[in-house]
Structures
1.
Amino acid sequence: MAGPIPELEERATRCARRLCEADRVLLASHIDADGLTSAAIAAQALERAAIPFETVFEKQLDADAVADIAATDYDTVLFTDFGSGQLDIIGDHEDAGDFTPVIADHHQPADRETEYHLNPLLFGIDGASELSGAGASYVLARALAEEADQSVAADGGAVAVDSGTPARADNRDLAALAVVGAVGDMQASGGELHGANERIVAEGVEAGVLETGKDLALYGKQTRPLPKLLEYATDVRIPGISNDEAGALRFLEDLDLELQREEDGEWRRWADLENEEKRTVASALVRRAVSRGVPATKIESLVGTAYVLCEEPVGTELRDASEFSTLLNATARYERADVGLGVCLGDREGALEQARTLLRNHRRNLSEGIDLVTREGVTHEDNVQWFHAGDRIRETIVGIVAGMAMGNEGISRSKPIIAFAQKNDEEVKVSARGTHSLVRKGLDLSVVMGEASRAVDGDGGGHDVAAGATVPIGREEEFIEMAEEIVGEQLS
Ligand code: C5P
Ligand code: C5P
Ligand code: C5P
Ligand code: ZN
């Protein structure tokens, strides 16, 4: 595991001190799982440090959004999970005296610096795979706890700080949300989190809010009834089980286990099984995969590290980092960031119920979107493949759909996928997704999206493995030609 990173922590301390000097703070964050968990971490840290604040969410931090922020009368603005890529715009407002920016982000920074800028990429840490926006916010939260503590000591304890238990006073309990953010940004590779993320996991385990262990790497271990867990798990396709309702049922019924509840005959969920039962199901699954000729490397990826939020009730989305992050995307990507934030901040009634309703809708949209793309197919260029969803897939989820569709019939995993969806009457949203193996060969989609979009009067950025852009309607073909050329150079 990576050791502590002193430069990162020093920068966090500098940012935390600046926040402690503010009378009040405007907290601005991005609308996805990582952005929501970033905001929830920052909000709790500010509250515990007794710094008054207000929270706003933006789909995208463009010039208009920054101008709106500048128009408020906040002197200090904390940006989480975005801000680095928009430093040119933000810097202009800073120069004009509109506000002082404090940034906790992990996106590729624009060509400009500012004093209170916390980003792993400034310190040689990979912002796509080692630290997320929520991770950067967590590092800031840890520094804030230290600073607030020190101001208590300096004032002889006059500042009211809600210290709670020792684990809470140092903000380590917020590690659970940081892990949800990292998993939501798909920072886990080879079945687990790496680098700075791993340190956060360790702190969460010490604080008693996280448990980790090798487990079946399927989505839905907490909430899906066993047959659905197996039927819907298609990352590793097991013939006769994946996408096969009757097959999945038969497989489970053939095991010598009581997998249906005695009371009502309902199927149990993975999270309800005893360890011995889990082992039996898992080894039968592996045997079946082997006998059906699933390649060994694929079979290995059936097992991974599970990140369990052990203070949350068994059988809920909140207990599994992956399910939690999808629940959050289901709120924030549908203009209900307030609901997701409520869930992160502990609202286990109204907000959670609303989030679950939104999740059902999100799932339906994802599955319809994936079906659509797979049915209609993508256009293959030499170096990229692409599709245009028009208004048939929401622009806020077209990237998730593109990523999940990769590997389906006709959709290659050996070149990046570029997806277009209508944004409004003038603009088209572009989302691009690659694989970690393409990144190892030189792919950097953040450069591709940035350069290709600016060549057609748009703008974009993001990470090497996942990036996005906005371009004017009608410039899509030109955009693809540019992207095709840049990807060709990167992979040559
Ligand atoms: O803006 P932000 O960094 O939070 O979002 C990153 C996006 O990239 C997420 O939607 C995440 O699902 C996506 N991603 C991906 N595949 C990866 C890494 C990230 O689809 N390997
Ligand atoms: O929606 P989100 O981007 O957070 O999904 C993260 C991952 O969780 C997806 O790439 C997919 O593997 C899995 N997922 C799933 N079924 C869903 C939602 C997400 O398998 N309904
Ligand atoms: O929206 P999507 O999920 O495709 O975004 C993928 C990544 O690209 C995210 O990290 C997002 O913040 C980034 N992005 C960006 N500029 C845009 C659109 C997306 O930096 N105009
Ligand atoms: Zn992020």
2.
Amino acid sequence: MTQADFVVVANRLPVDRTPDGEGWRRSPGGLVTALEPVMRRADGAWVGWAGQPDVELEPFEFDGVHLVPVVLSAADVQNYYEGFSNDTIWPLYHDVIAAPTYKRAWWDAYVRVNRRFAEAAAASAAQNATVWVQDYQLQLVPKMLRELRPDLTIGYFHHIPFPAYGLYSQLPWRKQVLEGLLGADVIGFQRVADAGNFARAVRRQLRYETKASGILVPDEKGGTRVALAKAFPISIDAESYVELAQKPEIQQRAKEIREGLGNPRKILLGVDRLDYTKGIRHRLKAWGELLEDGRATVEDATLVQVASPSRERVDAYVQLRDEIEMTVGRINGDHDTTTHTAIRYLHQSYPREEMVALFLAADVMLVTALRDGMNLVAKEYVASRTDNRGVLVLSEFAGAADEMGSALLINPHDIDGLKDAIVRAIDMPAAEQGRRMRALRKRVRDHDVEDWSREFLEALATFHDTASSAAAA
Ligand code: F6P
């Protein structure tokens, strides 16, 4: 068995099956791009699920990375992935926008599957290797891994929000989850507020002491060690968006998109996984009312809403799709003409090239999440706008709002405020668009996903070294 000096553990492997079901292709995510250089340098391994139930695969090499598939049975997918991860933790950590379901059988599956990931990581890591665990599906892995392999340096990054204590404390297994995460040397969050919520939960539930970003955790030998809980906001591979946006064929495609919509004066755009956290209903309501009030017409503007299919077997997602599709049908029925539409709704996923063409075509980008760890679409939009045009309307409840103060920040629950912001965005003079867009682009280009992974891994290495020399002294 190959053992690597650097191991990533994530719910999914960084590859998808090709459409013929025979081979593999790299999945489009930014995390894969960010980690690629580190993986190559360190001869890294990636432990994860191949995305289909009951598929037993031997470890294999892909694009210079050693992939270690973890098998999930159909019951594991139901209980660990759809159940505990996406119907308990996901809604609870997104401020109970949907009601979380607490089922003991789901928790049992979550513990079992987390152990399977921890064992696979332990078997894949060389002596004194660094293991980086990703996201809420695997919160118990850091502690399990530390027990199996005390020699490892363990990092964990939490891609979604960590909720305020009053909500977190609903979780029947709140202590076990905190202990699981504290198995890591460094626990990274998107926002300063997430790290603060975590530290508070640790103080209240476990009574551990916290000092600045450090948490004093009792160790196996009766002493204490320090774990670091800190914000490391994630970003995107900005240059790849810049390159695509400068390609003549993509600029041509943006023109075709506008023509295909009947050349409306302005195009509004929403791009989301079809998820109740994204505030798609609030966005549709605001747009529908603007048309109803006569403050906009379908010749003035069309809303293109890409809602990519997601978690389609979880009830809350099934219901959401029905509601959204009914609302879109009603608004279009009331306002469409034979040549123009109020909403062009696309329940599909697109390759990155098509997304960049859509970003270039969009005069206004609407990110109205009710709660979101970061929201990378906001960053992708501004990275693509090499022409310094376009307006980003951004929810203050998305992590991106902490860094993107030059957007039009909105509270998506305030429908009147959202309507005013949309009108302001549609009418914004070019000079103001340019001023805001330049500031937004600077931030995203100065802090891309490679900076994110480097900063996290440097903090992890430094922190682990300091902590072990302090323990040895
Ligand atoms: O960051 C949230 C997240 O759950 C990621 O872990 C995942 O890559 C993405 O959303 C898509 O979700 P899923 O893997 O459930 O399709």
